[in-house]
Amino acid sequence: MAPRRQQTVVMYPSFGVGHIIPMTELARVLLRRGLDVTMVLIERPFWSSDSGAATTRRVMAANPAITFHVLPPDPSPPDFAGSTKLPFFHTLQLLRRYNGELGRFLRSFPRRRLHSVVTGMFSTYAAEVAAELGVPAYTFFASGAGFLAVVAQLPALLAGRQEGLKVLGDAPLEFLGVPPIPASHMVKELLEHPEEDVQRHGGRSEAHRRHRRRPAEHVRVAGEPRRAGAQGPPVRPGKAMPPMYCIGPVVGDGSAPREMPPERRHEHECLLAWLDAQQKRSVVYLCFGSRGTLPAEQLREIAIGLERSRHRFLWVVRTPAGTDGPKKFLEQRPEPDLAALLPAGFLERTGGRGLVVTSWAPQVAVLRHRSTGAFVTHCGWNSVLEAVAAGVPMLCWPLYSEQMLNKVLMTDLDMGVAWEMEGYAAGRVGADEVEAKVRLVMDLEEGRELGARVTARREEAVAALEDGGTSQVALARFLADAEKLRGQLGD
């Protein structure tokens, strides 16, 4: 007798490393529960980015248990040249155009084998395809539950606005379930565009409003434990939120995949060997995400501050970004010339206590290493969860997207895992601030108190993942509800 085919979850992440990696971690969770997983990727635009393409290839090679399917290239890709629209809007338009190809792929499965479709937070147009096929559709929300609470309440806030939120400056915006958020800390699309413009181009509030239209879209999966990442459950004034399953934190264990290229494996081993030689909790780790870049002048300020602090450091430096604009989202950048970017003699003077690497570091392994004592981060939610899971206190330096909003949540005492680096909002954090905050988090009593709060959040995350923990309970409820919904949609 032929073996019974397992049910398949089709995962359809949004563009970008920050969406693909956490969805891959969720896929591993589902694989351990006996489900097959097929991840559908789009060839553009992330293949056009050197770091994004390389990371995606590593993810594919490192996960042979996941079936990866790349949809054919869009025959009429958007023309970024001369466009004044933000890259985010182009991305949403491109994702919607892929619905036809996605539908053809999904129809290649016998319906009884399709367990569900899990979309990324900006791939929600795919729920239309799943609804046509009678397959449950879920959204994996890769950002924090606090940001989800804000997103859920945005339509009421923005209704009828003729201007973007930028005109409000730093005025606090009140949302249920989260601390007051300065208007200036909202995502760029809402700062610079009125709500009607955001909706016309497929903006964030519209993307999330779509979840309330069909039963198949009325659930979300979040990659974090309930308490470690949120002040409370997401809420919407006057209405109940759809179910949310807090599964996680879904982060890697930091081990080097067997399929890692030899040159990258050598870098990985050398970097960890350097960390092995350092004392416990003695190293400040600085990294600004897969797309985070800083101007050359800012890199020099960081270097001066690190040198003055006298602390050990591991710093990931990328080539500064060029001119702002949509093209910046896709452009490839060469390896940085450290001698030209950093102060004269900096590398020689700090060589005994600092390590500067270009473009990449095995972040989860670094954060989980015993020598790492603090993390200067851009506040991307993947990085936040990785640091919380490792028990490493953070210094916040948000750069783009929802990162400034994340900073508010991270520094609020209810979560209490970070301090902010003053000056980021104005585009310049001075050397004095770098020195002072590094010394504060590494040397002083306040830094030890911050570390204790992060340790408490880490213990909550560990408890969530244990048998009977909130993550395991949420996962079981998700699977049971999905099976029930499959039956309802199949009637």
UniProtKB/TrEMBL annotation:
GO molecular function, one term: UDP-glucosyltransferase activity
Organism, scientific name: Panicum hallii var. hallii
UniProt xrefs under PROSITE patterns: UDPGT
Entry superkingdom: Eukaryota
Amino acid composition bias (Basic and acidic residues), ranges on this chain: 194-206, 216-227
Source taxonomy: Eukaryota, Viridiplantae, Streptophyta, Embryophyta, Tracheophyta
Pfam families for the chain: UDPGT
Keyword field contains Transmembrane helix: no
Chain spans, region Disordered: 194-241
EC number: 2.4.1.-
Family, per entry: Belongs to the UDP-glycosyltransferase family.
Keywords: Glycosyltransferase, Transferase
Protein name: Glycosyltransferase
Enzyme class, UniProt record, top EC level: transferase
Stored InterPro entries: UDP-glycosyltransf_plant, UDP_glucos_trans, UDP_glycos_trans_CS
